[in-house]
Structure formats: C-alpha cells, structure tokens
C-alpha cells in the first residue's frame, strides 16, 4: 500500500508541475502537504471502502472535480469524450443537436443546431434542462451532460425543460440521430441581394463560405448587399472565425487573446488578398450567437464593415485549449480571454447590436377594401417604372422568410441603403 501511495504521489506531483503553466502554484511545501492529504484519502479508499474501487475512476473523478472549481468551460475529457469532441469539430456525431453550458449549477441550452432533432422538437436557446431521462441535472458537469445527451442513432431520450414564461416544466421526447452539421447555407434574395447562414464554425468553414460567395457572385456579379446570419451559431473553431472575418476585411487586427501563458497571447490580422467587395453587409445575431460568432460580429462592427442587427449575443469571451494527455484523455482548459480589435471584452456581456430588433411574429396585413384611384372609371393608366421594376425586391409572403421578422427588417434596411445610393 505504501508503494501505491508513493506512486500516486509522484503522479500527482507531475500533474501539479504540468498545471503550473496555467495556474501558479503556491508555496511548494504547502502544495506537497495538500497532495499528500489527497494520497492519504486514496489509500484509505483502497484499504477501507466497502467495495473495491478502480484507481483510474478515482483519478479521473478527482481531475474532473478539480476542473469543476474553475469556470463552466474547463473540463476533463475521458478518451471516449475526446473522440466524440474530435468528431463534433469535423461536423458529424450522434446525439440531439444542442449546444449546452452551465450557469449557477444549472444546465442551460445555448442554442439548438439547425435541422437537428432538438431543433425540430422545438427546443429553444435559454431553455434549462432540469432532467435527462428522469435523472436530475442539478450540479452536473458540462462533459457529463454531453455524455448523457449523446447516443446512438434511433435511441430515444426524454428531456424535462424549464422555460421562461411557462409555469410548469415541459417534457420533450426526442430520438437521437447522426448529426450532420452543415456549416454554411446560402441563397439569393430577390434579384440583387444574398443571404448566408453560418450554423457553426468547424473545420473548413472559411473555405466553404468562400465557395458559396463565389457561386453567388457568378449568378449576380455585383451584389446589392449581403445578410450574414449568425443567429443561434454556438461558435466553434477560433481560426475559422478569423478566416471568415478575413473575407470581409483587407487589413487590421481581427482578434487578440490575453492569457497567463505566453503561448496563449495571440493576434490574428486580416490579409489583403481575396477580400469581398465593399457591398452593404448586415449581420444578424441573437442570444444564441456565442464565442466564435461573437468574434466575427465584433470585428466587423469595430471596423464599421457591417451593421449588426438583432438581439444581444450570448457573451462567451474565453478561449479553450484542448491538451491531450498520455492515456488518450484530454483537458479542455480555458487559457485566455479574447478581445475585439478595439479592445472590447465579450465575456459575460456579448455584442450589442447597432440596431436592436427583437424577434417577433411577422404577419401580412390584409389589403384595405376602400376605394382607390384605380377603381374610378376612366382613370389614367400607370406609367411603367423601369428602375423600380428591375431593382424591386420580390418576397413570397407565404415563404418562411416572410415569417422571420428580423430577416425582413434586414432586407428593408438593405433596400433602403440601395435607394439612398442611387440618389
């Protein structure tokens, strides 16, 4: 037993030395004493606990608990969790399709990912998951929550949801599926405008967006304006957010990070090549826009390259570094804060829109039945307006676009900018 104690003590001292690059250790003697208490507890568990305990489970549990004392985004990844995380950044995994975080020991949904089981079931950003398959989530760790939510295609899961405005919790029965998360969607709006939706930032998002823009330009070489939709975008890879911002900026700082470790202090700047033309750009955000989505919105706002419209974003302004360990597990450790080009911190604040537009239900208004000039006998015929006929925006009032109030406001603004430019 003494040899096991010494072995564990050596292991913990090595681990403490590794963690010193992130958090300065106190007096060496005090640290040694605290670690010795920990090994005493491990020895007592092995000698006196009513059943045999697995050493790896105890060590993993201790590491998980240690990281839980830091911030909601730092966590321990078992080998299985690490594999799942790598699959997620590549855009495919099994589960429900939601991004979650913890707040005051509560499990909160940042956003449902578009076109996933959670999205179609009606899960909303800001919902609190009270229980998963009847098990309470009170005080649950972020990675344990993800483990419970993930699963094989076809497996059902029951979520008990607390939602603002509802007096009683809501029950959602959802069937897991393989989550293929497309990163970019795009389409033309009318004759001169375009719409691009960024669902999340994963491997290749910047290059994929460039391909979509090239296709849009081929159909309409001179765009009258672009709406870039970042609503409910939970973020993702920092470098892909930088690559996306670089498409719209030809110079200057995009983002910089500050951390205790010198390697965590980074700067990313825009490059002059392959920059999009200076057409009007409107960025839509809401409370589900987080992390890398906020980096992009903040950079475009600081350089006055875009008008930010919608609602206050989520406010996740920290950088997580994945640090692999020898046994194929890993640490997901918060190592830096990031700042917009003008030095604004997004942490716990978010991006404030230039034009605040809450999402509301947009309804078409019935045409008045009153008499008009065209109803009078012998009225003059209308003279065709060629300019308006060629540049007017045609929107199908039966389409989903017509029910998206924020998108309609963005389209109105683009049209107004175009009218002003012509005058």
Task: Describe it.
By secondary structure, the protein is an alpha+beta fold. Helices cover 33% and strands 23% of the residues. It is built from eleven helices and 19 strands. The strands form four sheets. Strands 3, 4, 5, 6, 7 and 8 form a six-stranded antiparallel beta sheet that branches. The longest helix is centred in the first third of the chain and has 21 residues. The radius of gyration is 26 Å and the shape is globular.
How is the topology of this model organized?
Layout: H1 2-19, H2 28-48, H3 55-68, E1 75-77, H4 79-89, E2 92-95, E3 98-103, E4 106-112, H5 117-121, E5 128-132, E6 135-136, H6 142-149, E7 156-162, E8 170-175, E9 177-180, E10 184-189, E11 193-198, H7 205-219, E12 225-229, H8 238-248, E13 253-258, E14 267-269, E15 281-285, H9 292-302, E16 307-310, E17 318-324, E18 330-339, E19 355-356, H10 386-391, H11 405-422
Helix pairs in contact: 1-2, 7-8, 8-9
> What's the SSE pattern?
HHHEHEEEHEEHEEEEEHEHEEEHEEEEHH
Computed Rg: 26 Å
Helical segment tally?
Answer: 11
Main sheet record: 6 strands, antiparallel
* Mean pLDDT value: 85
- Are there runs of 5+ residues with pLDDT below 50, and where? 17-25, 382-399
Structural class by helix and strand composition: alpha+beta
* Total beta-strand segments: 19
SS strand fraction: 15-25%
Task: Bin the helical content.
Answer: 25-40%
Principal-axes geometry comes out as globular
Question: End-to-end span in angstroms?
Answer: 86 Å
